[in-house]
Amino acid sequence: MKTMRTVSDRVSKNIENLTSLWRVVGKRAQAHTREESFEFCAVDYSEWPNRLWFHHNADEKTAIAAKDRLLTTPFRLVVPYWDICQSQSYKWLEAHGFEKQFEQVGMSLQLGKRHDETGALTIKKVQTEEEAIQWEQLFLEAFGYTISHRLLLPAYESTDFYVAFYKSAAVGTVILHHMENVMGIHAMGVIPEMRRKGFAEQMMRRVLNLSIDSGFELATLQASNMGKDLYLKLGFEEQFMMKNYVLHAHR
């Protein structure tokens, strides 16, 4: 039986893993700044991990401070808001010129039993500049925006970038970011010409088994509506809604 604390802990670990990934990559790019009520990453040669996130539940003061900071930033930063306090404080963002761009669902899975896999799909860790450039192109095809290959190397201690292959054909991307006993699964996507062939499910099964074999106890992710049903099928549970805003001036 799940207690409220168990659910709350999973939510915290999900959000901590996500923000840790942004922070780690932002710091590597010398593009991370921490202020009193929020922190942000602003990489001028990549569309990710350009985010501004709050340390605590947003209020009018922090919404205004975030707006002031973003108005001095020459390119767009996404501002995530996770409605975990049921405070509806996102209304402060909307009142000060922020517009919702898209939503995601925070999900998690307690790891244990391995998942059945087919042998044809593999994932390969990016280790060379050529592989990093390939990863950047595949991600762009899958998601429609750019994560620069310059962010992928040299290797991180807690973060790995993978290309998925079916036989010799590249089909998609994924980022794995771990902290403590949690494996965060990010940027998992399949390029358009390889969709509707079951590769997303095969990729997730491979990633989950890799996480189990490495001793992790919890998997977390943030799903789009397109991917949510697959993750539910594999046993993930929905935990919270994440609204993603941009400042109107930076649309």
TrEMBL record:
Q: Which residues form the N-acetyltransferase domain?
A: 121-251
In terms of InterPro entries, this protein maps to: Acyl_CoA_acyltransferase, GNAT_dom
MF terms (GO), sorted A to Z? acyltransferase activity, transferring groups other than amino-acyl groups
Pfam families named in the record: Acetyltransf_7
For this protein, the record's CDD domains field holds:
NAT_SF
| Superkingdom | Bacteria
Name of protein: N-acetyltransferase domain-containing protein
Q: Which organism is it from?
A: Fulvivirga imtechensis AK7
